[in-house]
Amino acid sequence: MADNSDVEMNHETAEPVVNNSTEDPSESNAARASDWVRLQSSDGFSYLVRRKVAQTSGTIRTMLDPLGGYAEANSRICAINERGIIVEKLVEYMSFKSHYENVGPKEEIPVRDFLERIPPEIVLELLLAADYQDSKFHTLMLHPLTTDKLW
Amino acid sequence: MTTAPRRGKPKIMAPKKHGPEFSVDKTWTELKKNIREIQIQNASNLSFEENHRFAYNMVLNKQGETLYKGVKDLVVENLDSMAKERIEPVFPSGTTDATVLSDEDSRLLRKVKDVWEEHTNNMIRLGQILKYMDRVYTKTANVPQTQELGLELFLKQIMKTPIKDHIVRSVLNQIRHERDGCPIGRSTVKGCVDVFISLHIDHSTTIYKRDLEPAILKESEEFYLNEGVRLLAECDAPTFLSSVESRFKDEDSRVHHYLSSQTSGPLLAILDATLLVPHLLKVIEKPSGLDFMIDSNKFDDLTRLMDLCVKVPSGLQILRSAIKESIVRRGKAINDASRSDDSTNAGGEKPVEEDGSAKKDKGKTKTRAAPAGIQPALTWVFGVLTLKDKFDELWRKSFKSNREVESSMIGAFQSFMNMNNKASEFLSFFIDDHLKKGLKGKTDDEVEVVLEKTITVFRFIAEKDIFERYYKRHLSKRLLNGRSVSDDAERGMLAKLKTECGFQFTQKMEGMFIDMRVSADTSRDYANHISQSKTPELDLSVIIMTSGAWPVPQTPPVCIIPPRLGSVCESFQRFYLSRHNGRRLTWQPHLGSADVNIRFNARTHEVNVSTFALVILLLFEDVEDDHLSYNHIREATNIEEGELKRHLQSLACTKFKILRKHPQSREIDDADSFTFNQDFTYPGKKFKIATVLSKLENNDERRDTMERIEEERKVIMEACIVRVMKSRKNMSHNDLVHEVSSQLASKFQPEPSGIKRCIERLIDQEYLSRGDDRKSYGYIVSLFYWSGVQVQ
């Protein structure tokens, strides 16, 4: 399984960071919301993202949940088993979502602009990844005009 | 989705994953291994992403069912092993040693709690990696999600017969242990109870409700049944109350700390039913019960009693009747004490021991100040006031100012006060005593306070018309003799009576005050008028009383007024009648008084005597040093016998012996004779010879008064019936009786039989007619016999 080896590889690169951040679980919730987490793609790209932003994905939220206490929650390094270009689009969506999440009803959300930035050749892969990530991204992609289903 | 996209441009790449390289067995084996790791708390070494993807892939590859079943089996396996390895070994041994047993119970509960916590944590972790399964598979397959599955399995694998029974037993033992006063680990018990609360058998029922709560309630009921009996047998009332109160507190805290608040109601109901309902009455009746607590002012205990009594529906009723009984009993003691006239002080102390000393002091000052005749009245009212004060305090402090208790107290006071047929008389005497000038070393404020209290007691008296009669009598005496402490005080009291009983009640009394004012003016005018013509022989001050308003006889006692006085009277009468045409003046000599200068051997004194006494003394003016026989005096003055004796007694037998009586004794006899006492000496210049006081009415007089009151009542009732019938035209018997009773309640309480007699009389007189149904009456418009009824 190619996926498996990718994960393994990521796991190894993440290891040094684990040691640096072992004191994290004691931090308060507020501090935790603003700290940084690392998202790593299967081909070795990594993205530093605010935890708050990363948690717009249900899967990443659970992954980082200290209650579960899985390796990722301790190391704050999340291996995303996708190519870098996909992870990048996911991160872009997460930022887009958390930026526009709380705007007033009047303000226009540039959904169309955002969707137009998605290169057509990755759409299908991105759709699958978005579904796996349990974010509303795939809904957005499938129903771009119904803004009430955005998030 | 696993195949290449069916449409779109060729540029678009098919996702490379989920290809045929996916192997169910391999993935499941890996996942299974990892789940076992999770179950031994090794999650931190596992990658979430990896396991999540395993589950994801399995669901994606239509292996949801395999995954679900596999997880379920793993959880069951884990629970079974935990039950076997960790719970079963610590089953209590069934020892009888309480301490050992408690330890064993506690150990079992702790283990169960641990297992539960571990299991819930596991299920949370499994839920996290199986999230995709929960999202996609469980709904379509219509099976519970991972979390629910966890609860279900725990219920099935752990909370089953041997284990569950042991847990329930242990929880009960722990509760029992704590009730026996030993400390237990509450958090452990709470942990286990929470497990019961978390597990549902259906939507609304937890196994706590099904298995644990009934057991707890049953056990509690047994425990408290015995406890109630034990407490009642072993403890005195205050201890019983405080024990029960702390039991209530304990159970309440127990329920909230480690049971469920839903048990609170039923459990406390058990306490009510076992500790309070069967025992309250017995506790109240204990020698150390309600009466003792009231006697010794145990406010805290009484508060406790009250708190406990209001918990149960019948409790307040029991308490109320006990309080009522207690008051009535004390009241009867006061009644009895006042009846035995001779033991004026001793009797009054009985009902309120701790106030005895204070009361005695007051009693003594009164004995000095007031003539012995009215002492029982004062003692009685004082006793009642003290009792009222005491229960008011109790009511405020201990009975939470509860309205129902208050009404019982009022009822009790009414019942015992109206048992004393002299109540109205006594009360009026008491007020009289306080409104009289210069008798007490009391300030106006103190008197005011006492009178205010008296009014509250006055409310309890049913027969206010009797009181009115006595009060008028006393008031007139105060006014005529100038004995009122102050006009303000009198008017204040009158205002109070007015607010209590209405305008009619005080109308005549206010008339008396008006008469007093008008009389003062008239006397002044007369004095001016006289001084213009000649120097007055003697000063005359007259009080003109409107007839009817004052309680004085229509025909005054006769008396031959000596010419010296008679001429002045005639002069005034001429003056008055010249100003007020068509009026008639009747002299009431028995109410007057005179200031006379009397020359004795030693010196001249200014003496204040009653008019009758003056008339008697004037006889002696002409017969220097000679004896006057009783018969001679009677003929010369024509004063009625009893009255004459009374005045002679005051002149010859009191502190100031202006007359000498032969032979000397306390009572006046028909054969006695009198001489003027020339040798009389007294240090002061002025003194007043009080007429020997009218005592409380003797029985004949009282009977007479009562008869007169009965007569008056008949008239009032008839008038009331006619009034009611005139406005209603037709009324049933019961309605009429009820209406009349309620209208007259402010004056007295008419007997239904009395009302009935009045109705019959009115039917005879053709005011009313009997209705066809024999139960109602009709009003007959009539033009005659009107004046006879229109009295009030």
Automatic annotation (TrEMBL), chain A:
Positions of region (Disordered): 1-33
Domain SKP1 component POZ: 37-96
Biased composition (Polar residues): 18-31
GO biological process: ubiquitin-dependent protein catabolic process
Keyword Cytoplasm on entry: no
One GO CC term on file: nucleus
Key words of the record: Nucleus
Database matches in Pfam families: Skp1_POZ (PF03931)
Subcellular location: Nucleus
UniProt-listed SUPFAM superfamilies: POZ domain
Record has Signal as a keyword: no
Family named by the database record: Belongs to the SKP1 family.
Name of the protein: Elongin-C
Lineage: Eukaryota, Fungi, Dikarya, Basidiomycota, Agaricomycotina
From TrEMBL, chain B:
Alphabetical GO biological process terms: ubiquitin-dependent protein catabolic process
SUPFAM superfamilies associated with the record: Cullin homology domain (SSF75632), Cullin repeat-like (SSF74788), Winged helix' DNA-binding domain (SSF46785)
Keyword terms: Isopeptide bond, Ubl conjugation
GO molecular function: ubiquitin protein ligase binding
Domain of life: Eukaryota
Lineage of the species this protein comes from: Eukaryota, Fungi, Dikarya, Basidiomycota, Agaricomycotina
Biased composition (Basic and acidic residues): 350-360
Region Disordered: start-end pairs: 334-370
Protein name stated in the entry: Cullin
The organism of origin for this protein: Crepidotus variabilis
Similarity remark: Belongs to the cullin family.
Residues making up the signal peptide according to the UniProt record: none
InterPro entries, per the entry: Cullin, Cullin-like_AB, Cullin_homology, Cullin_homology_sf, Cullin_N, Cullin_neddylation_domain, Cullin_repeat-like_dom_sf, WH-like_DNA-bd_sf
Record-annotated Cullin family profile domain positions: 422-652
SMART domains in UniProt: CULLIN (SM00182), Cullin_Nedd8 (SM00884)
